Amino acid sequence: MSILVTGAAGFIGSALCRQLTARGDETVIALDRLGYAACLQALPAQAVFIQADIRDATALDAVFAQHAPRAVFHLAAETHVDRSIDTPLEFIEHNMVGTFQLLEATRRFWGERGRPDDFRFVHVSTDEVFGSLEADEPAFTASSPYRPNSPYSASKAAADHLARAWMATYGLPVIVTNCSNNYGPWQFPEKLMPLVIQKALAGHPLPLYGDGGNRRDWLYVDDHAAGLMAVLDHGEPGGTYLFGSGREHSNLEVVKAICAQLDQWRPDPVGPYARLIQFVTDRPGHDRRYGIDPSHARRALDWQPRTDFADGIAATIRWCLDHPHWANRDYHGARLGLIPS
Annotated Gene Ontology MF terms (predicted)? Predict the structure, then answer.
C-alpha cells in the first residue's frame, strides 16, 4: 500500500514524510514541483520522489495509476503571506486551481477503484482562514467562521471549501485540518524564526512589524506531523481537526526568546542580540491574533503536542547553527509585501 503526499519537499510535508516512512508499513509517494522553498534533502531516502505540479492533470492521473495510493495528504501550497501581497495570482493558481485539479484526479482514481470506503483525502490548511481574533475572543474551533484577510488566507479558504464541496457533491472521503504557526528544522528562512536567527547571527537588524504585539499559537512541526498521522488512522470523513499548542506568544516574545538563547550559545561580543530589534511599518492586512483550541483533536484523535515552546525554539536554533548554509540558501531576507503609496 502507498500514501501520496503533495508538497512533500516543503517544510511540513517533509516532516510528515519522515514520520510516515519511520513507521515503515507503507510506501510514501512524495510529490512536489520543487518551488523555491522546497528541499529534497529534507525528504527521507525511503520515499519515492516524483517531481510534478498539482495543476498538471495528466501528471496526476499517471501518479495515481502507477502507485494507487490508499490516501492523499494535500500539503502543496504557496504559503508566505508577504509574497501573496506581491503576487496574488500565484496563490490563486497553486492553492485554488491546484487543489481543484488534485481533487478531480483523486475523484477519477477513487471512482475507478469502486469508491472504497477506507480511502482518505486529507486537506491540510491553516488557521489564517478564520481571520483575526480580538483580544477577548475565544480561540478558533472547527465551527469558527471564515474571515480571511490576505490573498494567501483567502486562497486557502477557497481550497478548504472546494475540498468540502467534493465530499458533499461527489462523496469523496475528505478530512480538513487547520493548524497554527509551525516552526522547527528545515523551515525556509523567509519565515519569522529562521529569519530572525539568520539576521541575528549576521548582526543585521531584526525587523518586527508594528509594535510586535501580534499573537500566534506556535506548534512544533513534528507535533503537527504526528497529528496528521492520527487523522489518517482515526479521523472521520467530513471531520475538521485543528492542531495547535493551545498557547499563544507575541512576535516580540518569540524574537526575544530567540535572542536570549543565541546569547547563551553564540554570544555576540558587541552585546545582546535583542539590541538588534527594530520595529518597522506593519504589513498590510496584518491579522492581530490567532489562537487554536485543540481540545477536539486531543479527544477525537488521542493526540497532543509533545514539544514545549522553549524546547522547540532550542531545537530550532541548534539545527540552524548546525546547518549554516541552509539559512543562506537563495534568500537574503529582503522585505516583501510592500504596497507602494
Answer: dTDP-glucose 4,6-dehydratase activity
Q: In the prediction, which pLDDT does 329 show?
A: 60
Instruction: Read off the pLDDT of residues 141-177 as tens digits, 9 standing for 90 and up.
Output: 999 999 999 999 999 999 999 999 999 999 999 999 9
Give the residue numbers marked as catalytic: 127-128, 152
Which domains are seen in the chain, by residue range?
2-183+218-243 (3.40.50.720)
The pTM of this model reads 0.96
